Amino acid sequence: MMGYQMIALDLDGTLTNSEKKITPGTKQALFDAMDRGVKVVLASGRPDYGIEPVARELELERRGGYVIAFNGARIMDCANGAVLYQNTIPQRYIPVLVSLAEEYHVDYLTYDRDARTIITNNPDNIYAEVEARINHMPMRYEQDLAEAVTYPVNKMIMLGSGMYLHTVEPRLRRDMAGVLNVYRSEPFFLEVMPLGVDKGKALAQLLAITGIRREDTIAVGDGFNDLAMIEYAGLGVAMENAQDEVKEKADQITSSNDQDGVARVIDRYLLHGEAADA
User: Fold this and answer.
1) If DSSP states are collapsed to H, E and C, what string results for the chain?
2) Same domain as 208, residue 170
3) Mean pLDDT calculated for residue range 141-166
4) 131: domain range?
5) Is the pLDDT of residue 257 over 90?
6) I want to staple 60 with a disulfide (CB 3.0 to 4.6 A). Which of 28, 65, 126, 272 is the partner?
7) What are phi and psi of 182, to 5 degrees?
8) Do residue 255 and residue 227 come from a single domain?
9) Gap between the Cα atoms of 263 and 23, Å rounded
10) Do 175 and 257 belong to one domain?
11) Do 45 and 225 meet the contact criterion of CB atoms below 8 Å apart?
């Protein structure tokens, strides 16, 4: 097959609209692309458990798609559920992170060994509830999370109001410099990840596994955590609702997530074979 062979899509703000739904038009465009042999990759900061309902809706198990979870820390093959790649925070850093969270007076969460349950020091925290709701995941309280987490994890999240986390972020980044990556994914989420993890590097790993060429890939997103894959892909597309910096770095800008922006990309570049510089 000539032309683009893979499309990597962020979920929130990109594939899904403001109601967190895939519109019928976008879904049909994806089915049409997959019918032509294009591989669909769902790339999100969510755990794979939180991405699976979308993967099922798009029939990726049957059609052979992929999931990039935890902002690139884990890659899964939807056809068989196999973990193709993952990068984790070594378990020895968990007590350090718990101690720092307590020192900075923030709540925190991570995931159980199978990444099927959120575990947290405060299940009543409104921001922990946001993470549980987005991913349709149960929550479990652990009084001593440092004692409970005896395994490496893909990420840990510090929780707090945007204004307060703004003061915590530089301190935690300094504490973890050269050891772990610290960044804000939402005003109320301060994420701690393994070093060298981003959606772009994960996409490169997936291409090495599948044998698809970089220039034959499209990446579409709206947020700062999408920038790496937008810059890496053969064609990087920003949504109209994307952050300004993301739009500046993208090759193309499509319409917003509420105006079937992903469907327009598919129609233009995958179904009608338009060149990237068109």
Assistant:
1) CCCCCEEEECCECCCECCCCCCCHHHHHHHHHHHHCCCEEEEECCCCHHHHHHHHHHCCHHHHCCEEEEHHHCEEEECCCCCEEEECCECHHHHHHHHHHHHHCCCEEEEECCCCCCEEECCCCCHHHHHHHHHHCCCEEECCCHHHHCCCCECCEEEECCHHHHHHHHHHHHHHCCCCEEEEEEECCEEEEEECCCCHHHHHHHHHHHHCCCHHHEEEEECCHHHHHHHHHCCEEEECCCCCHHHHHHCCEECCCCCCCHHHHHHHHHHHCCCCCCC
2) no
3) 95
4) 91-194
5) yes
6) 65
7) -125, 125
8) yes
9) 9
10) no
11) yes
Q: Which of 10, 107, 216, 226 is catalytic?
A: 10
Token pair listed for 248:
């500046």
Q: Are residues 34 and 17 in the same domain?
A: yes
177, 194, 211 — which closes off a domain? 194
Task: Report if residue 169 sits inside a domain.
Answer: yes
Write the pLDDT tens digit of every residue in 77-108: 999 999 999 999 999 999 999 999 999 999 99
Distance, in Å, from the CA atom of 130 to the CA atom of 65, rounded to the nearest integer, reads: 27
Q: Is residue 164 in some structural domain?
A: yes
Residue 48 to residues 67, 112, 147, 213: CA-CA distances in angstroms? 7, 13, 24, 25
Query: Among 194, 224, 241, which residue terminates a domain?
Result: 194
User: Would residue 10 show up in a list of annotated catalytic residues for this protein?
Assistant: yes
Residue 153 structure tokens: 């994890």
User: What's the pLDDT score for residue 183?
Assistant: 85
Q: Give the end-to-end CA distance of the chain in Å, rounded to a whole number.
A: 20
Q: Do the Cβ atoms of 75 and 84 come closer than 8 Å?
A: yes
Q: Are 138 and 132 in contact (CB under 8 A)?
A: yes
In DSSP terms, 83 is beta-bridged to 76
Q: What is the pLDDT of residues 195-246, one digit of tens each?
A: 999 999 999 999 999 999 999 999 999 998 899 999 999 999 999 999 999 9
